[in-house]
Amino acid sequence: MAHSNRDGFSSKFGVIAAAAGSAVGLGNIWRFPYVVGENGGGAFLLLYLFFIVLIGIPVMLSELMIGRKAQVNAFRAFPSLAPKAPFFKIVGIMGVAAAFLILSFYGVVAGWTVEYIWLAVTNQLAGQSNAELKVLFDTFSGSTIQPIFYLVVFMAMTAFIVRGGIQNGIEKYTKVLMPLLFVIIVVLCLRAVTLDGAMVGIEFLFKPDFSKITGDVILSALGQAFFSLSIGMGVIATYGSYISKKENLLNTAVSVSFADTLIAILSGVAIFPAVFAFGIEPGEGPGLVFVVLPQVFSQMMGGYVFAVAFFILLLIAALTSSVSLLEVVVAYFSEELKLERKKATVLAAVSITVLGVFCVVSPKLFDLFEWTSSNLLLPFGGLLIAIFVGWVLDKEVVRAELESHGKKVAIFKVIMLIVKYIAPVAVAIVLLQSLGVF
Ligand code: TRP
């Protein structure tokens, strides 16, 4: 792609909204609470925050920097910036593989969301007991035809948006709809924390019990940080290539990460008080929000409207993330394999949907894809990205890109220290440890 015909974002808020649109999704509202629940609460949250600041923000900044400097998508960016280090092409290739795996199970969960919009609209969620909601979820997600139908519906929507080109759609809608989602989550939080017995949930989320920390918990926290920020596979680099040189990339990385983390924590605050107030198992697994939130809506004034609005906005948040995933695969098919863009979109969407069907029929495969992508591929991609910026690129090139808006970045040295040593070593230790090397 030549520089001149690249779409740009029309405003600073537009870029942040689109990158935040990719970051904020099912990862924050569906995955974060259930992973926190499975990993024992507060101590996991603390590790998660630690990884966001120490590794997430620097890797996001690195990706933005790589994309903006190279002005091309992720798998072209590495060879174009460092022709002498062809090995780093692997980041782009792993990115395509990760996008494939992630989107195949992501589409299934997004399909559940579509089903829940339907259940909310037809008022089938209200007044159900805990046990009934659990049966409802288990029966639905354990069946075959319905989840596949909703998966196909969701993937068709994603493909439709990607085919039309990313910028026009995404920027316009996310700017309005993400703040709306935020408002609904805040209202949910207010309702949840005023339930009887809410305190236990707050303590579960915020009071770290360090005895709960194991190797698996550490790896899950790292994986969740990567998954939630959309980093480690080049999606953010591609967004970076659209950002104007006048923007301060450090600010962008910090704002996006802050927004993403805030939404995840608020989702936790909306969920855990209710989990304990209603006597649900925090380690319930992927069904957690789908079992808990309908009960919170039942206990709210205007619960019907909130439930409908919530699931619709959750679907939109999922869409702004899924388009960023599909775009990676489509860009690869169309630019590297030289397929026409429309054909590439159909081919990518259909093959990912087929993989998604396997996830519907086999929960084992679902788990495997989820685990491998977030806990292995993304951290490994992030490790290579940090090494690329820290060791392969010239330090002055990195500095010039980070300061292209015309102001000095005061913490440049700290950033380089993290990118060069701390992030690669930390990620390597966590990965090796999880592979049983230590
Ligand atoms: N971050 C998104 C979420 O939280 C999911 C996602 C979109 C993603 N694009 C990504 C994850 C790229 C990893 C890499 O829902």
How would you summarize the topology of this molecule?
Elements: H1 12-23, H2 26-38, H3 42-70, H4 74-81, H5 89-121, H6 130-142, H7 145-163, H8 166-193, H9 198-206, H10 215-229, H11 235-240, H12 249-277, H13 288-298, H14 303-336, H15 341-361, H16 363-392, H17 395-402, H18 412-434
Helix pairs in contact: 1-8, 1-12, 1-14, 2-10, 2-12, 3-4, 3-9, 3-10, 3-12, 3-16, 3-18, 4-5, 5-7, 5-14, 5-15, 5-16, 6-13, 7-14, 7-15, 8-12, 8-14, 9-12, 10-16, 10-18, 12-13, 13-14, 14-15, 15-16, 16-18
Bound molecules: tryptophan.
Tell me, what's the shape?
globular
Supply the number of structural domains: 1
Counting DSSP E segments of at least 2 residues, the number of strands comes to: 0
| Bound ligands | tryptophan
Structural class: mainly alpha
By CATH, the topology is: Hydantoin permease
Individual helix count: 18
Largest sheet: none
Tell me the name of the CATH class. Answer: Mainly Alpha
Proportion of residues in extended strands: under 5%
Fraction of residues in helices? over 70%
N-to-C terminal Cα separation, in Å? 45 Å
Unreliable residue stretches: 1-5
